[in-house]
Every structure is written in structure tokens, then in C-alpha cells.
């Protein structure tokens, strides 16, 4: 019996799905849990086989189109966000993972599905291909929350995005096998070859042409640029798909990856739009696809699905990682962690639902069984790997991120100078709204992004999950603390330094303690003054050393006196840079790097003085 039959229209169903998906995502964010599980549970509970408050059958005709267009945008956004620099560094491991992984998963998955669930061989092979597809929507939150090492993070991210396409292509090949029994091995090889060639060439061409269009005078308006990017992605998807079925998935991924390599103005804004649209499509698709799942069939095959998942997790994944990491630069513990992480996500669910409908239409009765088994694998993998991620990290002693890496936010010209001072022994990245400063830093070879630090998307673009400490240096203490909360809550940054204006340090003392942040520079920071002096080129670098008999030894920076016109930017101790904050204690031999106004400081005046009750200084 359907609940709320008056809502059984495609429009109402879609809007309800959007509302449910949004509420589930907010709840998941609050619980710090991947939202995919809540999307699935909500869809199943509200769908035709649950409470039937979500009348997904009313939009069955549009479901094919929605899945295809949704997958196209999701994969395009994945290619646009793919870190190609790190992919090159870990390309050998990723390449072997996306070759050996699907082959081993298909072999073991097909054999177990045939033997345990009594599925015919053609559909069993299709099942193996579908569960070889990864889950970037699941693995990315895990990477961010767990703060995994850089190598593991990039291998998992690149594998999840690239294996989606490989698995999808193999799945469409095995769908043809299931629909046309007796197809020859030669035809299968030709199908794979044509799809890879068509998808790659069309994607490269589409990315190149789109970059040229976005750089032309025809698309200066922000709205036009956004619409042009969206329509081009769908157009390339359709073109590649019309040449070779499902080659469109590879084409949009290659298009996104090509576009990010081109010098496109304001590409961050495009990434922002695509990221938001991708997340909306992912969430709504999951709710609708889960609502379309027959719960009776799901329960019937629950034991088989759990057993197949256990075999895949214990045998298929470790074997794939063993072949992929043999002889690589990854440590044994890092390889073991990779072997323990293989969640499935929205692409697997979307393609499975699409193919299950195609099998039903062709008269194959095993479409529901196929869909039930894949969804069981998705649900258990999301739940299991999410719960396993932290204990496994602790057990294998996986280091999270790079403790010496620094992200400087909103410092303008002074932030650039601080970064250069710290960059002698650290990797330094920049996130700032000052396009002139960012452009200069990029030309100097730094990793710099122009964007709003209160938008988490820009943190993802700069790969903040790899950062060991964040320096927040905008002109507003309140603004700085909001950014510090984002770093603390969303990206779990170990060290956060915040520049504070006059008197704001005491006013916000409780929040500073709650966020476990430190006051940068150990003194009030006047953003406008220092950036104005830097812009007028009135500042010079000075270095002072703490002598063996200095009264500054063992004194905290909070307690010493730093005159106006003197700005310590870094302390060098035994060859390592230290970020100046209230709790830093001076040691003999320390080199204090300082920015200063030379005309404001008489030649005989010390640059840093000990506490007032002491006399000697440096």
C-alpha cells in the first residue's frame, strides 16, 4: 500500500529525493560518517519496497537518462580534481592496480557468484566487473578524516577515480556477453580496444577545445563559462557514447583531466560549480537507486552477498595490491593498508541499476539478483571500511600527512614572505583571494590557489588533507577563527596558527583553546599595516642570533618585547624552521628571521628585547 499517493509524480519524487539526500548528508556530516550509507538506507526505507513514501516508479522512464547524465558529470568532476602531479609520482602502482585489480576481482567475483548465488556465468562475469568499480565518494572522506600518508592518499584517490572507468568499460563488455551469448573472445578484445581509443581521443580533444573556448573572448561571463562547461561535458559524453557504447565515461574523465592541465582562467570557480553539482547528483542518484531496490530480493541474497564480500576482501583485494605494489616505493605497512581499503560507491550503484533494467527488458530474470548482490557489497564495504579505517591506520602505524608541510591562508604579500622564510626546509602551499600574490607565487614554483578559504572545495583543490600545519593570516580575527574551525573540524589539521588583531587574543581565548590553535607571531598582527609596507617596498629582511649569554634564552615569545615595526617570521634551530608563536622558547644559537622597517629602528636599538625586568637583549 503506497503512502501519500497524491505525491506520486516525477516532479514530487525528485524533489523529495533531493530533500531526503540533503538531510542525510547533513546528518552524516554531523556524525562524521560517509553519507553514502545514509542515502542508501533512506532510499530503501522510503522506496516502493519500504514505506513507499518515495514513488520512484513514477520516474522510471527518466531514470536511465538521469543515471547516464549524472555519471557523466561525476566522472568529469573526478577528472577535473585528479591530482596529476602525484599520479605521475605513484603512476606505476596505480597503473598496475587498475589493471590487475579488475581482472582479479572479476575472476574471483564471478566464480564465487556462480558457485554461491547460482548465477549464470555471463551474469556472474558482469557481476565481477561491476564490483571492480571503486568508490571515490567514499574513499575521499575517509582519506580526509584519517589523514593518511601522502602516497596512500594519492594512490587510493587515483585508483578510485580511474578504476571507475576501467570497471565500467569491462562491465559494458560483459553486458554484451550476457545479452548475446556465444560472442567470441576476439570481439570482446575489439570492444575494449575501441572503447579505450574512442574515449581517450574524444576526451583529449574535448578538453583541449573547451579550454580554448573558456580562454576566448566568447566566454568571459561567469554564467556562460559554467553553462558551457556543463553542456560540453554532456556533449562529449554523448559523442563518445554514440561512437562506442559507454566510451563516454572514459571520455568525460579524460576531458576533465585535460582541462585542469590547461591554463584556464578561474578554473577554481568551475571546479566549485562542478563539485556542488556532482555532490547533488551523487546524493539524489543514491536515494533514487536505493529506493528502486527490491528489499525482498536483498534479504533473500543477504547471506550470499556477505560471503562473497568476505572472499573479495580477504583474497581479491590483497592479491591485487600484492601485484601492484611489488617492487614499489611503498612500505609493507602502506601496502597492507591499501589491501584493507576497497569501498564501492555511486558509479557501481548507478551502472548496476542501469544494467539490471537492461537485463530485465531483455528477458533475463537475474537482473534483480545482480542488483541485490552488488548493493549488499556496496553497503557492507561502506560500513566495514569506514569502521576499519582508523583501527587499521593505528595498527599499521600509518603516518598522517606531512608534519612539516605548511598551508598559508590569506596573508597577502606578508604571507608570501613568511612562506619563503619557512620554505627552506618545508613544503609550503598558499590559499589566498589576492590573485596578484597567487600569480607571483605560482610563477616562483609554489603550489598556490586563488580562492575563498571558507569554502571547503578550495581546501580540497590544495589537498589540505596532506598538510601538517595551517597559518591563517587574514586581516580579521573573527575570519581567521572561522577558517581555523574549518581546518580543525573538516580536515583535522594537527597544528593551526592564527594571526590576531589587538585585544582579540583575550576576547577569543576560550575559542582559541577549544580549537587548539596558537597565536601566530606572539604579538598582535596588523594586516593592513604590514601589507601596505610590503607593497611600498619599505621592508627589509634581518637575521639575529641568540648568543650564548643572551637573556632571551628560555624566554617564551609571549613574554619578550617585540617593538613596533619588527615582525619575526621564522626561527631557525639546528637547520629546521620553527613557526613563531607564544609558546616558542628561545635557545642559544637560534637564528631569528625578521621583517622590519629600517627607518623606524635606530641602528643601535635591539630588535627583540627580553622581559621588562631584564636588561640585556639581542
From TrEMBL:
Keywords: Antiport, Cell membrane, Ion transport, Membrane, Potassium, Potassium transport, Transmembrane, Transmembrane helix, Transport. One of its GO terms (molecular function) is monoatomic cation transmembrane transporter activity. InterPro entries: Cation/H_exchanger_TM (IPR006153), Na+/solute_symporter_sf (IPR038770), NAD(P)-bd_dom_sf (IPR036291), RCK_C (IPR006037), RCK_C_sf (IPR036721), RCK_N (IPR003148). GO terms for cellular component: plasma membrane. The keyword Glycosyltransferase does not apply. The chain crosses the membrane at residues 12-29, 36-55, 61-82, 94-117, 123-143, 155-180, 192-210, 276-299, 305-324, 336-358, 370-388. GO terms for biological process: potassium ion transport; proton transmembrane transport. Gene3D superfamilies: 1.20.1530.20, NAD(P)-binding Rossmann-like Domain (3.40.50.720), Regulator of K+ conductance, C-terminal domain (3.30.70.1450). It is found in: Cell membrane. Coiled coil: none annotated. The keyword Transmembrane helix applies. Residues 528-610 form the RCK C-terminal domain. It is a multi-pass membrane protein. PANTHER family: NA(+)/H(+) ANTIPORTER 1 (PTHR32507), NA(+)_H(+) ANTIPORTER 2-RELATED (PTHR32507:SF0). This is K(+)/H(+) antiporter NhaP. The lineage of its organism: Bacteria, Pseudomonadati, Pseudomonadota, Candidatius Mariprofundia, Mariprofundales.
Amino acid at each position: 500500500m503506497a503512502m501519500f499517493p497524491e505525491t506520486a509524480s516525477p516532479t514530487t519524487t525528485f524533489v523529495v529525493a533531493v530533500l531526503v539526500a540533503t538531510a542525510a548528508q547533513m546528518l552524516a556530516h554531523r556524525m562524521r560518517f560517509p553519507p553514502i550509507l545514509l542515502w542508501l538506507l533512506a532510499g530503501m526505507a522510503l522506496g516502493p519496497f519500504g514505506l513507499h513514501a518515495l514513488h520512484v516508479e513514477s520516474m522510471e522512464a527518466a531514470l536511465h537518462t538521469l543515471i547516464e547524465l549524472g555519471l557523466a558529470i561525476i566522472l568529469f568532476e573526478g577528472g577535473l580534481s585528479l591530482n596529476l602531479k602525484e599520479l605521475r609520482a605513484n603512476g606505476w602502482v596505480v597503473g598496475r592496480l587498475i589493471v590487475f585489480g579488475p581482472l582479479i576481482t572479476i575472476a574471483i567475483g564471478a566464480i564465487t557468484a556462480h558457485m554461491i548465488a547460482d548465477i549464470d556465468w555471463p551474469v556472474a562475469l558482469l557481476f565481477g566487473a561491476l564490483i571492480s568499480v571503486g568508490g571515490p565518494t567514499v574513499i575521499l572522506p575517509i582519506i580526509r578524516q584519517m589523514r593518511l600518508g601522502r602516497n596512500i592518499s594519492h594512490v587510493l584517490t587515483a585508483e578510485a577515480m580511474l578504476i571507475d572507468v576501467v570497471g565500467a568499460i569491462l562491465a559494458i563488455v560483459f553486458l554484451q556477453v550476457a545479452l548475446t551469448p556465444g560472442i567470441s573472445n576476439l570481439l570482446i578484445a575489439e570492444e575494449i580496444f575501441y572503447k579505450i581509443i574512442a574515449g581517450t581521443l574524444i576526451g583529449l580533444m574535448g578538453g583541449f577545445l573547451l579550454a580554448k573556448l573558456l580562454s576566448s573572448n566568447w566566454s568571459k561571463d561567469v554564467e556562460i563559462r559554467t553553462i558551457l562547461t556543463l553542456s560540453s561535458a554532456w556533449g562529449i559524453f554523448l559523442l563518445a557514447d554514440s561512437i562506442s557504447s559507454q566510451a563516454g565515461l572514459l571520455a568525460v574523465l579524460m576531458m576533465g583531466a585535460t582541462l585542469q592541465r590547461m591554463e584556464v582562467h578561474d578554473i577554481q570557480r568551475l571546479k566549485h560549480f562542478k563539485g556542488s553539482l556532482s555532490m547533488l547528483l551523487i546524493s539524489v542518484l543514491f536515494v533514487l537507486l536505493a529506493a528502486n531496490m527490491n528489499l525482498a530480493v536483498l534479504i533473500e541474497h543477504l547471506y550470499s552477498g556477505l560471503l562473497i564480500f568476505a572472499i573479495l576482501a580477504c583474497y581479491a583485494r590483497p592479491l591485487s595490491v600484492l601485484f601492484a605494489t611489488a617492487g614499489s616505493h611503498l612500505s609493507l605497512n602502506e601496502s597492507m593498508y591499501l589491501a584493507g581499503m576497497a569501498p564501492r560507491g555511486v558509479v557501481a550503484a548507478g551502472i548496476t541499476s542501469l544494467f539490471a533494467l537492461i537485463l530485465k527488458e531483455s528477458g533475463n530474470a537475474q537482473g534483480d539478483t545482480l542488483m541485490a548482490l552488488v548493493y549488499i557489497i556496496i553497503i557492507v564495504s561502506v560500513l566495514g571500511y569506514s569502521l576499519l579505517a582508523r583501527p587499521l591506520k593505528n595498527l599499521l602505524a600509518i603516518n598522517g600527512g606531512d608534519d612539516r608541510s605548511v598551508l598559508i591562508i590569506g596573508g597577502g604579500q606578508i604571507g608570501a614572505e613568511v612562506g619563503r622564510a619557512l620554505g627552506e626546509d618545508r613544503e609550503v602551499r598558499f590559499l589566498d583571494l589576492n590573485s596578484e600574490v597567487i600569480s607571483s607565487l605560482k610563477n616562483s614554483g609554489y603550489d598556490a590557489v586563488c580562492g575563498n578559504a571558507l569554502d571547503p572545495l578550495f581546501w580540497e583543490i590544495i589537498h589540505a588533507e596532506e598538510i601538517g600545519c595551517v597559518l591563517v593570516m587574514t586581516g580579521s580575527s573573527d575570519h581567521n577563527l572561522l577558517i581555523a574551525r574549518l581546518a580543525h573540524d573538516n580536515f583535522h589539521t594537527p597544528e593551526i596558527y592564527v594571526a590576531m588583531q589587538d585585544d582579540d587574543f583575550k576576547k577569543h581565548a576560550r575559542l582559541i583553546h577549544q580549537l587548539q590553535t596558537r597565536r601566530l607571531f606572539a604579538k598582535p598582527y596588523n594586516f593592513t599595516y604590514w601589507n601596505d609596507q610590503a607593497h611600498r617596498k619599505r621592508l627589509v629582511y634581518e637575521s639575529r642570533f641568540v648568543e650564548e649569554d643572551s637573556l632571551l634564552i628560555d624566554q617564551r615569545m609571549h613574554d619578550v618585547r617585540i617593538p613596533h615595526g619588527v615582525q619575526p617570521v621564522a626561527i631557525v634551530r639546528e637547520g629546521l624552521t620553527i613557526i613563531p608563536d607564544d609558546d616558542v622558547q628561545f635557545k642559544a644559537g637560534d637564528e631569528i628571521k625578521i621583517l622590519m622597517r629600517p627607518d623606524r629602528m635606530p641602528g643601535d636599538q635591539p630588535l627583540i628585547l627580553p622581559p621588562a625586568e631584564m636588561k640585556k637583549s639581542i
